[in-house]
Design a protein that fits this description.
The chain is 77% helix and 0% strand. The protein is mainly alpha-helical. Helix 4 packs across helix 6, helix 5 (89-100) crosses helix 6 (104-128) and helix 8 (146-176) crosses helix 12.
Amino acid sequence: MIALGGVGALGALLAPAGLAQEEPFVDWDWVDRHTDDVWVSFTEHIQLTAIAVAIGFALALALALVAIRWRWTYGILAGFCGVLYAIPSLALFGLLVPALGLGLVTAEIALVSYTLLILLRNIVAGLDGVDPAVREAADGMGYEGWRRLVRVELPLASPAILAGLRIATVTTVGLVTVTALVGEGGFGSLIDNGLSRSFPTPIVVGTVLSVALAIALDLVFVLLERVLTPWTRATSRPSGGRRARRRAAASTAAPSSAPSSAGPAPAVGVTGG
C-alpha cells in the first residue's frame, strides 16, 4: 500500500509534465493555420532589416567621407559609434521608449545604431586600401574630387564595403527579433507570442526562420561580392595581384576617349592614416 501510494503521488506530480511532453514540439496544424501570420512576420523582418541597413549605410558613408577628409575626426566618430554599439539592446530600448514610444521609429533608431560602427570601419578601411598609384592615374585622366571617389575609389573599395554590409545585415537580422519588445519584431513577434503562451511551436518557427534568413542573406552577399568584384579572385595569385588591381582600376577609371599615353600627374588624395 505504501509503494502504491508513493507511485500514485509521483504520478500526480508528474501529470502536467507528462501532458506537456505528449504535446508535439512543432504543431504542424498550427503552422498550416497561421501561414499568413508567418508570411506577415517574414515581410516585416525583411523590411525592418532593409531599412536599418540602408539608413545605416548612408549615415556611415557620410561619416566615412568626413573622416577621410579630416583625419582627426575619425577617432571621435568611431568612438561615438562604438559607444552606441556597446549599449545593450534592452537598455537602448529603455532609453528610447520613454521619449519616442513604441513603434517603427524606435525600432529603426536602435537597429541603425548597431550598424554604424561596422559600416564606418569597413568603408574607411576600403577607401584607405585604394592604391595611391591608382589615385595618381585617375587624376592624370581627369578624374578629380567627387568623380574620382564615385568612379574609381568606391568601386575599388567595394570588397571591404560589401564585407561590412554583409556583417551588418546578418547582425541586424538577429537584432530585429528583439524589436518585438516595441511592437515591431518580425519573427520576434512569433517568438514573443510563443513565450507568453508557453507554446513551443511559434518559438521554433520564429527561431528557425530567423536563422534561415540570416544564412540566406549571408549567401546572397557572398555571391554578390563574387559578381561585383571579380578582380579580388585574381589578387590571390602571387604573381598577378598588383597587375590585376591596375587593370581593374584602368577599366573603371579610363574614359573611352582618354589617350593611352597619358602621363602621370602628381599624387593628391589621402593615404591611409
